[in-house]
Design a protein that fits this description.
about 350 residues; alpha+beta; five-stranded mixed beta sheet; five-stranded antiparallel beta sheet; 13 helices; 13 strands; binds thymidine-5'-triphosphate; binds magnesium ion
Length: about 350
């Protein structure tokens, strides 16, 4: 797949930006969107924050109580999903008008195959045009990365945020990508990172310069893929993703709970919510997972594969079974979640082109 030009777009401080747009008086001041901080006693996390709040050290995923300590004078707003989904749909609509192939990769990000541009500089001009249109029509800013594939384009986007355009051509990979931390590669999480660190690999370049066979010794087949990614090789096509990858619901308890019956009851409730969403969109699922976070933030996930089903009974029973071993220790639990994935439409999948308006 030589010669592709891939663009990745990610909206800047998205949830907070949508809030700023309808409350212009908040512009220029720290703004945090997430759980109710309750003057520092709040539970739950920061969903998004603007760049002014980031200067205080606040970031997405941080406990809201921590954010409050760092930035007590910020404005705190609750999450208003419908507003963000609406903005997201309009932005994706703008992108669909411009590129034949777009893949929405999250609520505020998308990949576009812009290989119809004859050069990277033509792609850059195209990126300017898209930014201008989003800014005029939606009054929101975004950052765009352009590269020979999805991986490089996505890494490029993050190099100049907010409101940036970054191009990385293949020959620049050693200079621009290799210094980045290994955690920036897809698939490297809490388990892989320490293994890499132990083997002396801290940057993407450390992996790239490693002999592929040593990586295969360490990680099996995945080691080969890792070596390719670190070298900026990525053949994944830009694909319109019509189906969600998973459906999940989670809850942070008002108070940490150690009574297994109460936790299992919560899992039952969450299963019902997940099930409702599954039925509403006519899916079968075949993977069932749970997430459990103890009061010390230690977080575990477990999943099980079943025959494709839409049964609430199976969902509840499996989710509870998966959770039970964690409840035996009677440790205090802060959050539980239920997830289904491996989704399949009950009816025939719509034709891919069908979704391109
Ligand atoms: P991101 O694009 O990761 O973050 P962002 O748009 O807020 O900021 P940036 O300028 O760095 O791109 O995520 C998009 C939205 O997804 C974000 O506005 C809120 C939501 N989100 C969460 O709810 N929880 C999270 O942990 C993260 C990372 C994002
Ligand atoms: Mg974003």
């Amino acid at each position: 797949m030589a010669g592709r030009i891939i663009m990745h777009l990610d909206m800047d401080y998205f949830f907070a930006a949508v809030e700023e747009r309808r409350r212009p008086e908040l512009k220029g001041k720290p703004l945090i969107v997430g759980a109710d901080p309750k003057e520092g006693r709040g539970r739950g996390v920061v969903s998004a924050c603007n760049y002014e709040a980031r200067r205080f050290g606040v970031h997405s995923g941080m406990p809201i109580s921590h954010a409050w300590r760092l930035c007590p004078n910020g404005t705190y707003l609750p999450v208003d999903f419908p507003a963000y989904i609406d903005a997201s749909a309009r932005i994706m609509g703008i992108l669909k008008n411009h590129a034949r192939k777009i893949e929405q990769a999250g609520i505020d990000e998308a990949y576009m195959d812009v290989s119809f541009c004859s050069s990277f500089s033509e792609a850059e001009a195209f990126a300017f045009k898209i930014k201008k249109e989003i800014s005029e029509k939606e009054r929101l800013t975004c950052s765009i990365g352009i590269g020979p594939n999805k991986l490089v384009a996505k890494l490029a986007t993050d190099l100049q945020k907010p409101d940036g355009i970054t191009i990385i051509i293949s020959s620049e990979i050693p200079v621009k990508i290799w210094p980045l931390h290994v955690g920036r590669l897809p698939g490297i999480g809490a388990k892989t990172e320490p293994m890499l660190a132990k083997a002396g690999m801290r940057t993407i370049g450390d992996i790239a310069r490693m002999d592929a066979n040593s990586l295969i010794d360490l990680f099996g087949k995945a080691g080969y893929e890792l070596h390719r990614l670190a070298n900026g090789i990525d053949d994944r096509p830009v694909e319109e993703e019509l189906e969600p990858k998973s459906i999940s619901r989670e809850v942070t308890f008002e108070k940490d709970i150690s009574n297994p019956a109460t936790i299992l009851k919560a899992i039952e409730e969450l299963s019902k919510y997940v099930h409702e969403a599954v039925i509403d969109s006519s899916y079968f699922f075949k993977n069932i997972g749970i997430k459990i976070r103890f009061s010390n933030f230690e977080t575990h996930t477990r999943a099980k594969t079943v025959k494709p089903t839409d049964s609430l009974e199976i969902l509840e029973k499996t989710a509870k079974e998966l959770a039970k071993p964690f409840l035996e220790e009677r440790k205090k639990v802060r959050l539980v979640g239920v997830r289904v994935s491996g989704l399949e439409k009950r009816s025939m999948k719509p034709l891919k082109d069908f979704a391109v308006k």
